């Protein structure tokens, strides 16, 4: 589906939820070192690391489904326009280089 102005509320919510989860998953592992091995806190952090990490995996699939159902807004400027612009710039650069190569510097 296209023609909509923005992402669906579900997609936006899932996007930010994912960010929070990724930060939490990372921090849980990063900060586990503050607690001694075998301590309850350290084990709990590892447990939540696994659980939240797995929920990221589940969310990925929900996000793909939400995208398929809710659609996405068009990219502006459209990639085709940007590509055409980049292509023209590349052609100009190449033409410029070719001109340089054709110059016979031995005559200068
Ligand atoms: C978004 C997902 C995840 C991220 C970004 C992530 C990231 C990390 C990081 C940064 C570490 C620490 C590595 C180190 O200190 O050398 C780690 C360790 C670990 N992660 Fe994950 N992880 C994710 C998901 C998971 C899941 C789903 C599981 C298992 C169900 C898992 C199991 C482990 C284990 C077993 C360790 C080593 C623990 C230890 O050394 O005590 N991770 N992860």
Can you describe what's shown?
This protein is mostly helical. It folds into two domains: 1-74; 75-108. 71% of the residues lie in helices and 0% in strands. The protein contains three helices and no strands. Helix 1 runs antiparallel to helix 2. The longest helix is centred in the middle third of the chain and has 31 residues, at 40-70. The chain is elongated and about 70 Å long. The termini are far apart. Bound molecules: protoporphyrin IX containing FE. Residues 22, 25-26, 29, 46, 49-50, 53-54, 56 line the site of protoporphyrin IX containing FE. The site of protoporphyrin IX containing FE has 10 residues, from helix 1 and helix 2.
Quick synopsis:
This protein has 108 residues and is mainly alpha-helical. It has helices at 9-30, 40-70, 79-102.
> Could you give the order of the helices and strands?
HHH
Biggest sheet details: none
Ligand roster: protoporphyrin IX containing FE
The number of helical segments is 3
- Give the overall pLDDT as a whole number: 87
- Measured distance between first and last alpha carbons: 61 Å
How much of the polypeptide forms β-strand, as a percent range? Answer: under 5%
Give the proportion of residues in helices: over 70%
Given as residue ranges, the uncertain stretches (5+ residues, pLDDT < 50) are none
Structural shape: elongated
Q: How many structural units, i.e. domains?
A: 2
Secondary structure tally: strands: 0
Q: If you compute it from the alpha carbons, what radius of gyration comes out, rounded to the nearest whole angstrom? A: 26 Å
**Structure classification:** mainly alpha
